[in-house]
Amino acid sequence: MSLVLKPDWRHFALIVLLASVVRSGVLFWSLDSLSADPDAYRRIAHCLTIHRTFGLDAINLETGNPVGSPTAFRPPLYPWLLSWLSDPLGDIPNLRIAILHWLLGMATVAGTHGVAKRILRDDDLESLVPKKGECEPYDARSLSAASMTAGMFVAIDPLLLQSSALVMTETVATLLVVMTLWCWLRLIDSISRPLRTRQVIGRACLAGMACGLAYLCRPTFVIWPLMLGTYLMAWGMFLANRRSVIAGTLLLAVMMVFVGTWTARNYHHFKKPIWATTHGGYTLLLGNNPVFYEYIRSGDSLTRAWDASFFIQRWERRADTDPRNPGFWDQDLVMEPTPGYTAPLGEVADDRIAYETAVATIKRQPMTFVRASMWRLWRLHSPLPLRTEKHSTPPILMVATFYIVSLAMVMCGGIFLGKKILQPRWAAAIALWVALASVHTIYWTDMRMRAPLVPVLAILAGACVLAWRQRTRKYRLSDRQS
C-alpha cells in the first residue's frame, strides 16, 4: 500500500527534510566550534552538575576543596539544559550539544510552519476570497505555500545556522519565541470565540509560562509579556470583554512568578534584587564607551566591524584605575593606581561600575549616544554583514543577497497585510519587534541579536507569497471572464 500525502503534508515533509539536511551539515562541519565557551554557559552547567549550584567553580579558602560559587552572570535556562547533557564528570561532549541544537532547530522550523499557517489562515483573508461561482474557492494550497515559505526561511537563515554552531542562547530563544506566538494565537482564538472561560484561563497560563521561559533564557524578553498583558487588559476594557481582562491579568501574574522566583534567588545570594543578570552593565558599556563612540564617529562604521580588542584589554585594567574617568580610555595613558579608588569586588560591584561608566560616557557625549543608538537600530535590521578580517567577500555577498531578498519579501508581505497586521493575532509579533528594538537600541547590538525575530520576518515573507498567489488567481479569474 503506497503512502499518499496531501499537498500540505508534502510541503511540511519537504521543509523538515531541508532543515534536517542543512542543519545537520552545518553542525557536522562546525562541531569543533561548540568547544568554545565565550559566555560561560558550559562552566555554569559544569558547576550545576558537580556542585548542584548555579554558579562557577571556586575553591573554599578554609578547606581548599572545590565548591560552587553562586552567580547571576547569565540567565538560568540554557545552562540548566546543558547540565542534562553532562557526563558524571561534568563534561559536555560536543556531539550532545549538536544533537540538542539540531532538535531545537527542527522544532523551530516546524513551529514556524504551524504559526504561519494559523496566523495567515483564510478567515483573515475573507475579503480576498472571490464570491462563489466567480472562481475556485479559497483553497489550502496558497496558505500551505505561504507557511512552507516561512518554514523554509527559518530552515536556511544564516543567523540561525551560525548560532546553532555556538554555545549561546539564540537557538533556544528562537524556539521559545515560536512557542509564545503559538500560545498567543490559541489565546486570542479562545477570547474571540464563544469558548468556556476555563479554556481562556488555561491558555492564558500557558502563554504566561512560555513568556516566562523566554525571560529565563534572555532577560531582554521581560518587556514582551508586559506589553502583551497590558494589551489584553486594555483590549478587554475597551470592548467590555471580561475574558480578555482575565487573560491579561493571568498572563502577567504567571510571568511575575518567573521574575519573582529568579529575583528572590539572586537576593538570597547577593542581597540585591537582581531581576536580570549581572552582565547587563557590561553589555551597556560595550555599546557606550569612548572607544566605541570614536568608531561611530569614523567613516567606516557602516561597512567595517568594530575591533573591540583595545576596549577589552583596557577594561581588564579596571582594578588599577577608575574606568569612569575619561582618561582611562586614552590609548597613551600609563596605567597607574588612582588615589582613593577602590576596585570593584564581586560580580555585583563589577556590574554596577560598568553601568556607571556607561552612563558617565553617555552624559559626556549625548549626541554621539544618539548616533550610536541609530547605528544599533540599523544593525539590528541591516541585511548587510560588516567587513571583518575573518570573513572573505564571497560569504558576505551571499549572506547580504539572502537578506536583501528576504527584506524585500518582508516589506511586500507587510504591504499585502495592510491593516490586518493591526489585528490582535499579530499583536505578539509586533510587540516582540518593539521590545527587541527598544532594548537593543540602548545596549550592545549586532545582527545576531535579531535571531529571535527571524520567525516573525519569515512569516511576513510567507505573506508575500500569499499575495503573489492571490494576484495570480485574480488574473486567472479575469482570463476566464474574458
Concise synopsis of the structure shown:
With about 475 residues, the protein is mostly helical. It has helices spanning about 5-30, 40-50, 75-85, 95-120, 140-155, 160-165, 170-190, 195-215, 225-240, 240-270, 280-285, 290-295, 310-315, 345-365, 365-380, 395-415, 425-440, 455-480; strands at about 55-60, 65-70.
Mean pLDDT: 87
Q: Give the helix tally.
A: 18
Largest sheet: 2 strands, antiparallel
> Strand order within the widest sheet?
1-2
Please indicate the count of domains. 1
Strand content bin: under 5%
Gyration radius over CA: 25 Å
Order of helices and strands: HHEEHHHHHHHHHHHHHHHH
Helix content: 55-70%
Detail the poorly predicted runs: 1-5, 124-138
Broad structural category: mainly alpha
* Secondary structure: number of strands: 2
What is the global morphology? globular
Q: What is the rounded distance between the termini?
A: 45 Å
Structural write-up:
The protein is mainly α and 482 residues long. It has helices at 7-29, 41-51, 77-83, 94-119, 140-156, 158-164, 170-192, 197-217, 223-238, 242-270, 280-286, 290-297, 309-315, 347-364, 366-381, 393-417, 427-440, 454-481; strands at 55-59, 66-70. It has one domain (7-124, 138-281, 376-481). It has a two-stranded antiparallel ribbon. Mean pLDDT is 87; it is low at 1-5 and 124-138.
